Amino acid sequence: MIRAYIAALLAGASAIGLLPVSDAPPAEFFRVWKQPVPPGPRITPYLRHQAEQAWKEDEARQEAWDSIRDEASLLKTQDELRQKLLQMIGGLPAVKTDLQPVITGKIAMDGYSIERLIFQSLPGLYVTALVYVPNDHAGKHPAVLVPAGHASDGKSHYQALSQRLVGRGYVVISWDPIGQGERSQFWDQKAQKSRYNLICGEHAVLGNLAYLAGANLARWEIWDGIRAVDYLLTRPEVDGERISITGTSGGGTQTALIAALDPRIKLAVPSCYITALPMRMSNRIFADPDSDPEQDLFGMISSGVDHPGLLLLMYPRPVMVAAAVLDFFPIEGTRKTYRELQRLYARFGHGDRIALVEGYHSHQYSPENQQAALDFLDHFNRMPVRSSLPPVKELGDESLRCTRTGQVLLDYRDARSLVELIREYYIEHKTGTARRLATEYYGEKYGGVKDWRVGEYRGAPPKDGEIAWESAGSAKVGEVAIDRYVLHHSAELEMPLLHIHKPGARDRKV
């Protein structure tokens, strides 16, 4: 029933070619809604419906977690979440190739040095990084990864945090994420800038390609972080049993994802990222709506991962969540997620390994939050307790540049763009069988939709398994009729629809 109805309506769209070209019909002939759509962002019925579905899935996940009564069940849940996360990102590369690290320069600072490093996380995929090394070589030092957030200058933007960490005795590595800093994938050499931008713009383009290939941009970001750990383990001054990670904003995203999938990282402090995704869904259209695909993993909520799942993948390792009360990542979601994980950690005797720090400010890794994070790191890394942050001497971008030209794709003839690697990923993973759109549509998500009942709208929201049509008027242009409808379905959803056709003997009523 439903298939025939939709087919008839959509087939009529081909009749649009019958409309006279000379005199364009007035706009109201095509306007289904009686009131104009208001300008600007708004919560549409569709978004409200999606948010309600997300909350239902979140509640189902919480109920499942509440039933966990022994650590074996918790670890089983953890393993299931890990497999789901790997599936969402498209898996990880199977082989760790030679890093081929090269130190391109060294800066002497007060009590430490900064090494400019370039390594290859995959053959031809060059990563520009800074390594902060204490001058004290008497023993091995704990190490910290500092993935960069969404800043056009990448790693150098977060040098203050790195300097404070090295001042506390840590070896630190911070690198440019793909599409930022010296790793632009769409660099216009003549204009000396990215064709998009080095904040979220390149991530959006690369991430959309990754979606189409069946993967996620996070796959390659996580791999950069895993290979950064591999590099740290080659350093004689690094204690491989004391490796931590902390970053903010996009660096907080990477912190959570890398720590979730690399157990060699013993402690994590994600900043300005952790919340509850149903809440972030509801405010994102108004606050920081930029596309950032590595945060938007397909099926993240429905699969039960969400942000609580990312933190659960770190159990029983120490975790601190650093948050900003006035952030666009809702603080209410941060507190909710933290409480969930704190209960689980405490249930199995590790309540002292999880903490939350809040700063009353907007989206930033504030000095007070950094102080709390460094104290947390010091405690679990068995470092001396300090009451203040080390001083910072920020350097210019030129001083911290690893490449000669400022871009790896210009410096290295054998450099490969991520666009190439995504294409190769697609070719390697594509199936020989074409997937039909109808099969996808009538699959698990809308099981039984072919049997839904179709009837005229009577003023009441349709029940489950029903679609109600409502006539919104009709117009005629020459021999062509334009019929306007509103389709009501899924309780509160409405969809405008035009049936453009040439009336005649072939009309059929469905």
From TrEMBL:
Span of the signal peptide: none
Domain Acetyl xylan esterase: 114-270
Protein name from the UniProt record: Acetylxylan esterase
